[in-house]
Amino acid sequence: MSVIGLGYIGLNVSNVDAWKSWASDFLGLMAAPSSPSGTQRLRLDDYAWRIALEPGDKDDLAWIGLEVAGPDELAMLRARLEAGGVAVEDADEALLAERGVVGLVRCQDPGGLGVELYYGPTHLTQTPFVSPVGARFVTGSQGLGHVVLATTDLAGFRRFYLDLLGFRQSDTIRMAMGPSFHIDLEFYFCNPRHHTLAVAPLPMLPPKRMHHLMVQVETLDQVGFALDRVGPTNTTLTQTIGRHSNDKMVSFYVATPSGFELEYGYDAIEVDAPTWSMARHDRISSWGHHRV
Ligand SMILES: [Fe+2]
Hints:
This protein is α+β, with helices and mostly antiparallel strands. The protein has two domains: 5-119, 2,3-Dihydroxybiphenyl 1,2-Dioxygenase, domain 1 (Roll), CATH 3.10.180.10; 140-288, Roll (2,3-Dihydroxybiphenyl 1,2-Dioxygenase, domain 1). The protein is 18% helix and 37% strand. The protein has five helices and 18 strands. A hairpin with a 7-residue loop joins strand 3 and strand 4 (51-55). The protein is globular, with a radius of gyration of 18 Å. Bound molecules: fe (ii) ion (FE2). Fe (ii) ion (FE2) is lined by residues 146, 148, 212, 214, 263.
């Protein structure tokens, strides 16, 4: 496979200070040094940064960074995208410095989301990650976490992420939206994380392209401690604790300062690519995850 993980994301947020303090006090992320252009960034691990908070009025996901192994893989992927009719541009020196990576090209997915393909991110081994609340995040070979997006063009979405970027589908969930309407959610993987990307095919685009961002912690207690921080940090719980049917993650959902949701979970299964076969589920959770 070509892409090895979701390395970073860029959020367009209307209140950077609110995001920064919520990310620290509730999520347990660590503030990172600002980027060369002054953008506030957040750390989940020993990478220099994982989440960038760009000031703006969209309060939505603005771009994603998908990591590849090195220059050969980047060149191969770039050629595949261009052969598939996707316009790809090289990063200039300023963008390379801004992201802190060795090589980068960028393009857009069929929904207009900025997609950066890169290799050689910066590690800060001299200043190890220390969570202000003692959280430890599952990243490494599984990347930052997962994002769930909406599309009105499932064929285009599949072509871009599966055919061109090399993701594989882990499974599908049929979700009832009423007595006579359902949607088939699709889940895509590119490393042992059950899904790095999931997509909801909808008849109309919702106001935000990002449904939720998921971060995973190492223990059930860390999920419990986070639940206990909901009240003291004035965070809005949006879905109760539950276990998902497909990746088996035990998690709960809250509203971020931007309004889209964040899933805080642990205990997800991992995909073994050579032996994995797709499954279909007819509900999203085996228990819990009730809307608040
Ligand atoms: Fe999720």
